[in-house]
Amino acid sequence: MDEGLVRKAKAQAAQRGKSVSGMFSEIVHSLDTEKANSRLPPITSSLMGAMKNHPLSEEDYKKHLREKHA
After folding, report:
1. How many CA atoms lie within 13 A of 21 on its CB side?
2. Cα–Cα distance measured from residue 70 to residue 58, given in angstroms and rounded to the nearest whole number
3. SS3 sequence, the chain?
4. Is 49 left (phi over 0), alpha (psi -120 to 50) or beta?
């Protein structure tokens, strides 16, 4: 592998608090996800998983609607 690419991978992994192999595993796994999402419009596909680390409840959504339409 190109040394410059290895340096970039290590820097990206460090920035994300991950190992290079862990980051590579995520990338390979995302390829399956991208294939499954390819039937969606690009903008919709780009938003898939955007709220993955932000669990929202039905009550959160209702609160949002009340504030939005108050």
Report:
1. 0
2. 18
3. CCHHHHHHHHHHHHHHCCCHHHHHHHHHHHHHHHHHHCCCCHHHHHHCCCCCCCCCCHHHHHHHHHHHCC
4. left
Q: Using one digit for the tens of pLDDT, what is the confidence trace for 10-56? A: 999 999 898 999 988 888 887 776 565 567 777 877 787 777 887 88
Closest CA to 20 of 32, 5, 2, 31: 5
Tell me the Cα Rg of the chain.
Answer: 18
* Distance in angstroms (rounded) separating the CA atoms of residues 68 and 13: 39
Residue from 31, 2, 8 nearest 20 by CA:
8
- Give pLDDT, residue 34: 57
